[in-house]
C-alpha cells in the first residue's frame, strides 16, 4: 500500500516537473529566437569594441538562454528570490537567468554554506566568505577567475586594475582571484551619538576631551536629565556585546584587534595602553557611567534604552542610529539623539577607529561544476557596467528611481513608503550584497539630515584611522592562526569583561605574559609577515 | 553458557516472533542514529575538509587530542563539567526522590494531581524561554530579585556576570525545571510496592517516617541505583543549551564546560575535526565512568544495568 503511494507520488512529481521544464524551455527558445538575429551582429561588435558596449542588449553573456543555480543570501539582505526585478531585468539583458537554491527561511548562512559544501553538489554560482573561497578554491571547489576576467570581463578587469586593494582582497597569496567581492562605498561606519537635548537641559557642551566626556556622563547619570525623578539613566551603552567598547577603548589608544602604525603590526591587547584603558573604564563602570548590563543586554539595547528614555551615549552605525529621532519624536518630548565627533583621545587626537571597508569579506564565485564559466563571468561583468551597477544600487528605473540630471533619484515609492527605504530598495533585489560596487548616494538620499551632517563632520575632519587590511596567509600560517587565535581571543574577551565588571583588578603585566605564553606574539609575527607581503603586492 | 544463551534466544524468537517485531523500530533507530554516525568519528583523526569529504581528507593521528589536552582550557572545562554535574547529582537527584515520596504520600486526589501537574509543567517549557526568565529575574537594573534586594537596603548584584554565582543559578534553574518530571520514574516505582508491606509495618507500629525509611526506600532502591548509574554516565554531558544561553565571557571561568567548548570551536569557528576529537574524548571518559559505576553498584547493592 505504502509503496504504491510512493510510486504514485513520485510519478506525479516527475510529470509535473517535466511539464514545467518543458514550458520554460519552450518559452526561452522562442525568446532566444527573437534575439538571435541581432545577437550575431553584436558578437562581432563586442569583439572589436569591448569598452563601448554600454548600450542596448549588447550585455548578452550567453548566446542561448542559460539557467544557472545560485547559492545566495546574507543576513542583511535576505535570501535570493528568483523574481527579484533587477535579476529578471538582468536576465532579459544578458540571457542568463539565476535560480536560487536556498529556501527563503534560512537565517544561518554559515550553516547552510557548510551543508552545501559537504553535499559536494555545488550550485553554479555561490556566495560565500573570503576565507571559504580561499580554502575551498585551492581544493578545487571554485574556479580561478584570473584568465576568465582577462578575456571576457572588460569592465571587471578595468575595475580590478584601478582598485588594487579590491583585487588583493579577492585573491590569494599567489594572486589567484577566487571571487568577486561586494564592494562598499562611503567612509563612515560607526560614530558617536549623544542625547543633545539632555546636554542643553543640563547646560553642557558636546564633550571634546576624555575628561569632558567623563563629566558629561557623570551629569547624565546623576542629574536626572530625563526628569522622572529616578536615577535610571544609563550613561554609555551599546548593543554590540563584542565590539561595543571599541570607541571608548580608542580614547586611551587601546584596540581590540590588529592595527598597523608606520608599517608595524600591533595586536591591541598586547599593548600597555590596553591595561590603562581598562583601568580607567573599570573606574567609569564602577561610577555607573557605563551600562551595568553592557555585556548582557545584546542587540535590543539601543531600542530599549532609547525608547525608555534612559540611554545617553553610544557608538554605533550611523544610518540606523540616526533614525531614532523620527521614531521617538512623538513619544519623548524634545528627543534628540545626534551624532557628534569623537572626543579627543588622551593625547589630544580626534580619531575614529571604525571605518567602512571597501571590499567586504563576502562575494560570489564560480563553482567547479558550473556548465558555462565564460557566460558566468560575462554575467558578473554585467554588474560592473554602468547600467548593471545602477540596477544593483537603485533598482528599476521608473519604479524605484528616476534619472534626474543624469543622477538616479529614488521615487516616492521608496522615499514615502511605510517601510524603511532600504527595505523597499532591497525588495527589488538591489543592494543584496553580491559582487557589485556600491554607490553611497543610494544611502545618502534617505539618511536623515542630522546624520548626513554628522557624517560630513567625520569626513571633513578626516578622523578615520586606517583599517587593518585583509591579509593572506600561507597554509601553515593559517593553521597556526586557527589553533591560537580562538584561544587568545577568548582569553582577551574574558579578561576584559572581568576587569571592566570589577570581578578582577587590572593586572596588565600578568595578562600580557599569559597572552605571550599562548602565542599571541607569534600571531603578530605572522601578521607582520603577511602585511609585508601585502605592501609589496600593492606596490 | 554463551551457546545456550543464543539457543534460548532462538527459541524465544521462534515462539514470540511478534513480540520481537516490536523491537525492530528501536534497533533501526539505534542503527541509523547511533551506529551509522560512528563512521564520522574518524574525522577526529583527520584534517577534515567539508569539500573533500571524510574519505579524502588527510590523516593527522592524535594531533587534536594532544592539542585539547595540552590547551590552556582543558583543565578548566573538565573541572567545570564535573563540578556542574556533581551539583546536579548531589542536589537535583535526591530532590527528585524526595518529591516523588512526598507526592506519593498525599492522599487527597485532587491536590495530588494539581501538585503533580504544576511540578511537571516547567519541563515542557523551552529552555530558551526558561533562560530568558532567569535572565530577566536576575537583571541588575530591572530584575525582581535585585529590586527586592534594593528594597531591603542591600546593594544590587549583577548575578550573571559573576562567575561565583553561575553554578548555583544553573543548578537552581534545573532543579525547578526538571525535578517534577524526573520524579515520575520514582512515583511509578513507589506505586509498584506491595501495599501489604505498609500494612505489616503499621501493625509493627511504624510511623510515617519509619514506613518511608523501611519500606519505600528499600522498595525503590533498584530504581534509584539504575537511575544513578545512568546519571553518572551522563556526568560529562551537561545540558549545554542552557549554559550557552546563560554564560558570557566574564563567567567562562566557572561556566565553560566541554560541550560548550566543543560548540564554540566546532560550530562557531568551523573546526569540525577538533570538535569531534573533543567529543570523542568526552564519550570515552563517560564510558569508563558508566562501567565503573555499574561494577561498584553490582558489588555494593547487587543491582546493576547489566
TrEMBL record, chain A:
Keywords in alphabetical order: Signal
Disordered: annotated segments: 29-58
Keyword Cytoplasm: no
SUPFAM superfamilies: Periplasmic binding protein-like II (SSF53850)
Keyword DNA-binding set for record: no
Compositional bias annotation for Polar residues: 29-46
Compositional bias annotation for Low complexity: 48-58
Protein name as it appears in the record: Carbohydrate ABC transporter substrate-binding protein (CUT1 family)
Natural source organism: Paenibacillus cellulosilyticus
Automatic annotation (TrEMBL), chain B:
Entries under CDD domains matching the protein: TM_PBP2
Segments passing through the bilayer: 20-41, 77-103, 115-138, 180-200, 212-230, 274-293
One record GO biological process: transmembrane transport
Main location: membrane
Domain ABC transmembrane type-1 as annotated: residue spans: 78-293
InterPro entries attached to this UniProt entry: MetI-like, MetI-like_sf, UgpAE/MalFG_permease
Domain of life: Bacteria
Membrane recorded as keyword: yes
Keywords: Cell membrane, Membrane, Transmembrane, Transmembrane helix, Transport
Database matches in Gene3D superfamilies: MetI-like
GO annotation, cellular component aspect: plasma membrane
Transmembrane helix in keyword set: yes
Family: Belongs to the binding-protein-dependent transport system permease family.
Protein name (record): Carbohydrate ABC transporter membrane protein 1 (CUT1 family)
Species per Swiss-Prot/TrEMBL record: Paenibacillus cellulosilyticus
Amino acid at each position: 500500500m505504502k509503496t504504491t503511494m510512493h510510486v504514485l507520488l513520485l510519478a506525479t512529481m516527475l510529470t509535473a516537473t517535466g511539464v514545467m521544464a518543458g514550458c520554460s524551455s519552450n518559452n526561452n527558445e522562442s525568446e532566444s529566437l527573437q534575439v538571435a538575429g541581432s545577437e550575431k551582429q553584436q558578437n562581432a561588435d563586442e569583439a572589436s569594441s569591448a569598452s563601448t558596449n554600454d548600450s542596448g542588449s549588447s550585455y548578452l553573456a550567453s548566446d542561448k538562454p542559460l539557467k544557472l543555480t545560485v547559492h545566495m543570501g546574507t543576513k542583511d539582505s535576505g535570501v535570493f528570490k528568483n523574481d527579484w526585478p533587477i535579476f529578471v531585468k538582468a536576465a532579459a539583458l544578458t540571457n542568463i537567468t539565476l535560480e536560487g537554491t536556498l529556501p527563503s527561511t534560512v537565517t544561518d548562512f554559515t550553516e547552510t554554506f557548510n551543508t552545501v559544501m559537504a553535499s559536494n553538489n555545488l550550485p553554479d554560482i555561490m556566495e560565500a566568505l573570503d576565507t571559504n573561497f580561499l580554502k575551498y578554491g585551492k581544493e578545487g571547489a571554485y574556479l580561478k577567475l584570473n584568465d576568465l576576467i582577462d578575456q571576457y570581463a572588460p569592465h571587471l578587469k578595468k575595475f580590478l586594475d584601478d582598485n588594487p586593494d579590491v583585487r588583493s582582497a579577492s585573491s590569494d597569496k599567489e594572486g589567484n582571484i577566487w571571487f568577486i567581492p561586494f564592494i562598499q562605498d562611503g567612509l563612515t561606519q560607526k560614530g558617536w551619538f549623544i542625547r543633545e537635548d539632555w546636554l542643553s537641559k543640563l547646560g553642557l557642551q558636546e564633550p571634546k576631551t576624555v575628561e569632558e566626556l567623563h563629566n558629561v556622563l557623570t551629569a547624565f547619570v546623576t542629574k536626572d536629565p530625563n526628569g522622572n525623578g529616578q536615577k535610571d539613566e544609563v550613561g554609555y551603552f551599546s548593543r554590540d556585546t563584542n565590539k561595543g567598547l571599541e570607541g571608548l577603548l580608542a580614547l586611551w589608544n587601546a584596540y581590540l584587534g590588529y592595527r598597523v602604525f608606520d608599517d608595524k603590526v600591533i595586536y591591541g591587547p598586547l599593548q600597555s595602553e590596553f591595561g590603562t584603558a581598562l583601568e580607567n573604564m573599570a573606574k567609569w563602570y564602577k561610577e555607573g557611567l557605563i551600562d551595568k548590563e553592557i555585556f548582557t543586554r545584546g542587540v535590543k539595547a539601543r531600542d530599549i534604552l532609547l525608547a525608555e528614555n534612559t540611554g545617553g551615549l553610544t557608538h554605533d552605525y550611523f544610518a540606523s542610529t540616526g533614525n531614532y529621532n523620527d521614531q521617538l519624536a512623538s513619544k519623548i518630548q524634545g528627543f534628540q539623539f545626534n551624532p557628534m565627533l569623537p572626543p579627543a583621545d588622551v593625547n589630544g587626537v580626534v580619531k575614529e577607529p571604525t571605518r567602512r571597508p571597501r571590499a567586504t569579506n563576502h562575494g560570489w564565485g564560480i563553482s567547479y561544476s558550473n556548465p558555462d564559466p565564460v557566460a558566468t563571468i560575462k554575467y558578473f561583468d554585467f554588474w560592473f557596467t554602468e547600467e548593471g551597477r545602477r540596477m544593483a544600487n537603485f533598482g528599476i528605473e521608473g519604479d524605484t528611481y528616476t534619472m534626474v540630471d543624469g543622477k538616479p533619484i529614488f521615487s516616492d515609492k521608496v522615499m514615502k513608503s511605510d517601510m524603511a527605504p532600504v527595505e523597499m530598495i532591497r525588495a527589488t533585489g538591489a543592494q543584496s550584497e553580491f559582487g557589485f560596487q556600491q554607490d553611497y548616494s543610494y544611502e545618502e538620499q534617505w539618511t536623515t539630515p542630522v546624520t548626513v551632517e554628522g557624517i560630513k563632520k567625520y569626513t571633513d575632519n578626516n578622523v578615520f584611522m586606517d583599517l587593518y587590511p585583509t591579509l593572506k596567509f600561507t597554509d601553515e600560517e593559517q593553521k597556526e592562526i586557527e589553533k591560537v587565535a580562538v584561544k587568545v581571543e577568548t582569553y582577551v574577551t574574558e579578561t576584559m569583561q572581568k576587569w571592566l565588571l570589577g570581578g578582577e583588578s587590572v593586572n596588565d603585566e600578568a595578562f600580557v605574559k599569559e597572552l605571550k605564553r599562548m602565542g599571541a606574539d607569534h600571531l603578530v609575527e605572522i601578521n607582520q609577515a603577511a602585511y609585508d607581503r601585502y605592501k609589496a603586492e600593492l606596490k | 553458557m554463551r551457546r545456550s544463551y543464543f539457543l534460548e534466544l532462538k527459541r524465544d524468537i521462534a515462539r514470540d516472533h511478534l513480540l520481537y517485531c516490536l523491537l525492530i523500530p528501536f534497533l533501526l533507530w539505534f542503527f541509523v542514529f547511533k551506529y551509522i554516525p560512528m563512521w564520522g568519528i574518524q574525522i577526529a583523526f583527520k584534517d577534515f575538509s567539508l569539500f573533500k569529504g571524510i574519505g579524502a581528507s588527510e590523516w593527522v593521528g592524535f594531533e587534536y587530542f594532544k592539542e585539547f589536552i595540552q590547551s590552556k582550557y582543558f583543565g578548566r572545562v573538565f573541572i567545570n563539567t564535573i563540578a556542574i554535574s556533581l551539583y546536579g547529582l548531589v542536589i537535583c537527584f535526591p530532590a527528585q526522590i524526595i518529591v516523588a515520596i512526598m507526592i506519593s504520600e498525599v492522599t487527597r486526589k485532587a491536590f495530588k494531581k494539581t501538585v503533580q501537574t504544576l511540578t511537571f509543567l516547567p519541563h515542557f517549557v523551552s529552555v530558551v524561554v526558561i533562560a530568558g526568565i532567569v535572565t530577566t529575574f536576575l537583571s541588575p537594573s530591572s530584575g525582581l530579585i535585585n529590586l527586592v534586594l534594593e528594597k531591603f537596603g542591600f546593594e544590587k548584584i549583577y548575578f550573571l556576570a559573576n562567575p561565583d554565582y553561575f553554578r548555583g543559578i544553573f543548578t537552581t534553574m534545573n532543579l525547578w525545571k526538571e525535578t517534577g518530571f524526573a520524579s515520575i520514574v520514582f512515583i511509578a516505582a513507589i506505586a509498584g510496592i506491595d501495599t501489604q508491606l505498609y500494612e505489616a509495618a503499621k501493625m509493627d507500629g511504624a510511623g510515617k517516617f519509619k514506613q518511608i525509611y523501611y519500606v519505600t526506600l528499600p522498595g525503590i532502591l533498584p530504581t534509584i541505583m539504575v537511575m544513578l548509574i545512568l546519571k553518572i554516565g551522563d556526568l560529562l554531558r551537561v545540558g549545554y543549551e542552557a549554559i550557552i544561553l546563560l554564560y558570557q565571557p566574564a563567567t567562562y571561568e566557572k561556566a565553560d564546560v566541554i560541550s560548550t567548548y566543543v560548540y564554540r570551536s566546532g560550530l562557531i569557528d568551523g573546526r569540525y575535526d577538533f570538535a569531534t576529537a573533543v567529543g570523542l574524548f568526552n564519550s570515552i571518559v563517560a564510558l569508563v565512568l558508566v562501567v565503573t559505576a555499574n561494577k561498584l553498584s553490582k558489588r555494593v547493592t547487587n543491582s546493576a544495568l547489566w
